[in-house]
Design brief:
Blueprint lengths: L10 E4 L8 E5 L1 H11 L4 E5 L2 E5 L2 E2 L4 E5 L3 E5 L24 E6 L2 E6 L3 E3 L15 E6 L2 E5 L3 E3 L6 E4 L5
Parallel strand pairs: 1-3, 2-4, 3-6, 4-7, 5-8, 6-9, 7-10, 8-11, 9-12, 10-13, 11-14
Length: 169
Amino acid sequence: MFFAAQIGIAAEIKVRDSGAKGDGKTLDTKAIQSAVDKCAETGGKVILSDGIFLTGTIYLKSNVTLVVEKGAVVLGSLNLEDYPVNEFGFNNLNTYRVNRALVYASGMSNVGIEGGGIIDGRGGSFVKELKLVRPFLLWFKECNKVSVEEVELRNSAMWMQYYVHCEDV
């Protein structure tokens, strides 16, 4: 997989430098997304380390790897409003209902998740919601060169991983 890091210009951005608290109580979505957006300018890695990062949807961008280090947890918010509705862009049986995710990428290249940590969607907490409005843990749509490795995925409210119309996964 080609990343800007391979030619020495990649960024390594720690989400705490973007304002993330990692205390498991503060909603860190904006800080994490800010780090991803900044990292996308050159490509590289967004680092989450030593903490519990409560978040809604994280939108991955091309040439960005989300690194959830051992000792770090990405913890899904319990508020469905923290998971914006995403469009499928093509016909699917559930396009009008199943449309939220904790980590989402659409039309991106060279995206990844790694690091030895945990991504926990807290799926058991969504038992009162209709099954078809619960968020996927990971949803990659029309992406290429996708890598998810050495990270523990747990407790998805919907499907754990959903790769649709992707290549080189």
